[in-house]
Amino acid sequence: MATPLEVAEQFRKRILANERQSAMRLVRAYGGVYQQILPQIEALTLELEATPNISLWKKVKLRRLKDLKRQIELEVSRFSTFMEGDLREGIFRSIDLGGQYSRAMVGAFVPGVRIRWNKLSSEAIEMLLGFMSEGSSLRQSLDALGPGIADLVEEKLTKSLALGMNPRRIAAELRGAVGQGLTWALRTSRTTQLYAYREAARANYVANGDVVQGWRWLAAKDRRTCLACLAMDGREFPLSQPLEDHWNGRCTMVPVLIGMERVQFETGREWFEKQPEVVQRAMMGKARWKAWRDGKFEFDQLAVRKLDKAWGHMQSEATLKELLGEMKNAA
After folding, report:
1. Measuring CA to CA, how many Å separate 28 from each of 9, 25, 267?
2. Which residues contact 172 (CB under 8 A, 6 or more apart)?
3. How remote is the C-alpha of 315 from its chain's centroid?
4. Mean pLDDT split into 10-residue runs, the chain, 331 residues
């Protein structure tokens, strides 16, 4: 029988595998956007190269720019529609997996014991989360993606011309601006699915409050783990508190069962303190690592709660300035 930590790792791999499949679909779909837009960027580049007087080009650029922006908005908006459908499916998969995870975690604490478990429906949790509801932050972001990328391309072009950049350099800047749409999509898709997974697990814990009384923060412990997550690792929270992970965060919840001892595991701080100095310095940065070794701040202070306009409060890494300023104010 798997231990609670083994179950947590098994499900972490499953949710990340689902997210990677979604990412591959988004990359393929956005590739179609590039195929439609790049010829217009190339045409604009050739026009710039053939125009010795850039000032003159600026005066007549309006039509070309309008055509480019219109094409970008059209293609990226089509991608947004595709992404919305893919996200809906991903959210339901994540919610279902979160429900399975919550039950499996409780079962791992009491193997062989039959527990009465109230399982919430995926539809009920999706309505509760309201990711795609009218007026939601995610809904608004999807609707604004096409116009936003078009405006970004115009901004890049205007600044590049003002700086007198080479036409080929300008083309690279415009391609990079178009690519921001995919960057946003991948980041948003991953964060949304992970958030849905965690909140589905928490909702099921809440629905079984006669068994579960709280949860503990569990971070993935490797060199890619952010210091805020390592600092939060092992802390206990009531069921009313969401897990406030950052964008792309991989953390999850370990349930605290009524009348049972907490599962024991190595905390993020303990894991970090065991790492070689070269690893610690690479993860913290030289100045922050030295301040920590000199006792200027405690490891737990590396997690700072900040407000994100899309997701509400999230934990993020404290900067050295924030850490030392905190100590100075405390003194």
Report:
1. 29, 5, 39
2. none
3. 12
4. 92 95 97 92 82 60 79 95 94 95 94 86 84 85 94 89 83 94 96 95 95 96 95 97 94 95 93 97 96 96 93 94 70 45
Residue 151 CA to residue 145 CA, distance in Å, equals 10
User: What residues contact 238, with CB distance under 8 A and at least 6 apart?
Assistant: 213, 214
The reported pLDDT for the residue numbered 331 is 45
Distance CA 30, CA 83 (A): 10
Residues 177-189 have pLDDT tens digits of 999 999 999 999 9
What is the DSSP annotation of 10-56? HHHHHHHHHHHHHHHHHHHHHHHHHHHHHHHHHHHHHHHHT-S-HHH
CA 22 to CA 189: how far, in whole Å? 8
Give me the pLDDT at residue 170, please. 87
CA atoms 227, 3, 195, 202: torsion sign: negative
Residue 314, classed as helix, strand or coil, is strand
| Structure tokens, 298 | 């405690």
CA distance linking residue 87 with residue 153, whole number of Å = 26
Q: Which of 37, 44, 85 is nearest to 61 (CA)?
A: 44
Compute the residue count for the chain: 331
Query: Are the CB atoms for 225 and 206 separated by under 8 Å?
Result: no
Q: Partners of 255 in the beta sheet? A: 215
In the numeric block, which tokens belong to residue 242? Answer: 């969401």
293: three-class secondary structure by DSSP:
helix
According to the model, what pLDDT value does residue 53 have? 64
What are the CA-CA distances from residue 94 to residues 28, 126, 204, 213 (Å)?
A: 21, 10, 13, 23
Three-state SS sequence of 205-243: HHHCCCCEEEEEEECCCCCCCCHHHHHHCCCEEECCCCC
